[in-house]
Amino acid sequence: MKYACLPFLALASVSFSQVTPVAGGKYKFSTKYVKGQTYKYAMNINVGGPQPTKQNMNVVVKVLDVKPNGNKTLQTSTIYPGEKPVSVTTTLDKYGKPTDNNFGNFTGSLGLPLDAIKVGQQWSGDVQMAGGMAGGVPIKGSYTFKGLSTVNGVKVATITFVMDMRALFNSTGSGSQVVRVSDGQLFSMKMVMNMDIPDQKTKKITKAKINMSVALTK
Q: Can you list the domains of the chain with their CATH numbers?
């Protein structure tokens, strides 16, 4: 079983959010892309339970086009060792919300916070899954802006999140991500999921903990 899509359910919209200070000690989040840019990530997934497994893969995001209204077209490719890349192309608006009902098997509707927010403030949103494996099931998310810091000389913003995926994956998840303040580029992410996996024959439920991490490599 491959789990590569799971962390991007939490991160699809906020992974590329530029952070700009505004009046009142608040910060405005918005996406920032440049046509022709390519982002490369290393992703590691460790699955616990009776049959523990590890999955390592690379993810490449290419910016194919950027419109004056802020819409951008991205190609996201997941690359498993020894396999051909699996690519999905989608268009996002300036808040990171897909406009074409297509983002790796789901329609994201969580988006960035529409208003400027202060450190410690929360926002929420759903990922509305499209057809196929999901059949229109929402995944609920809650996000908290934890503040700014400097990591290895780079100014970053940290966002924590809690995901309720019981309607689809029968699981819950939580974690944090770090984005660069200058351009909103995802710097790193960690997520832990607790999942109930039913046996297809016996229907017995097996509990598994899934640890995922993503790091920018280029």
A: 5-216 (2.30.230)
